[in-house]
Amino acid sequence: MLDIVLASNNQGKVREFEKLLAHLPLRLLTLKDIGYTQEIVEDGSTFAENALIKAETIFKHTGLWTIADDSGLEVPYLGGQPGVHSARYAGDNATDQDNNAKLLLDLAAAQGEERRGVFVSEIAILGPGKIRGVYRGECRGLILNEPRGSRGFGYDPLFYLPEFKKTYAEMTQEEKNEISHRGKAMLKTQKALQEFLKKI
């Protein structure tokens, strides 16, 4: 059983990664599990850069295999915002509700296709022997005028997928993992991890 650190304490992400990695011979540790309490400064200009910053910081600290995700919502109508600022769109200490309220306010005049959005996930893996990889997943949908559903986290209650007639927050974890940005990035990550594990 290989220990791998998820460079996050976000419980929503932890639950998703636990499900997505459940079939691999891994023990997933969080930052809390390893006693890491310092703030990781995510000053990259892209999701990939921020994922690598988190992974490199924790790998240097522990020497353990590390996996890090940076993800968020891009809305073309808003010039790609919230983007890498998705978690703090309404301010540094913003809650999910704060961020959703700001997004709805900023999209108040948007109609139809103007409310298109894409969720993006970039997952970075770092391991001993200069093992390194970054894997991207995307999911496209529409931003509703009001929240729907009680599952998920972040912008999930606003992100609607017309082909499924559901928001992320109305899906079960299994349904979401099948089609989500993180699920798609994780599928690529799983394949890479399986290849890496064969070499250990």
What does this structure look like?
The protein has 200 residues and is of the alpha/beta class. The protein has a single domain (2-198), classed as Maf protein, CATH 3.90.950.10. The chain has five helices and seven strands, in the order βαβαβαββββαα. It has a seven-stranded mixed sheet with strand order 2-1-3-4-5-6-7. Strand 4 and strand 5 form a beta hairpin.
Which secondary-structure class do the elements indicate? alpha/beta
Overall, the morphology is globular
Under the CATH scheme, the architecture is Alpha-Beta Complex
Helix content: 25-40%
Q: Can you tell me the CATH class?
A: Alpha Beta
Per DSSP E runs of 2 or more residues, the count of β-strands stands at 7
Low-pLDDT stretches are none
User: Order of helices and strands, N to C?
Assistant: EHEHEHEEEEHH
Number of domains: 1
Beta fraction: 15-25%
Instruction: Please outline the major beta sheet.
Output: 7 strands, mixed
Strand-helix topology:
Blueprint: E1 2-6, H1 11-21, E2 26-29, H2 47-62, E3 65-74, H3 96-106, E4 116-127, E5 131-143, E6 159-161, E7 166-167, H4 173-179, H5 181-198
Parallel strand pairs: 1-2, 1-3
Antiparallel strand pairs: 3-4, 4-5, 5-6, 6-7
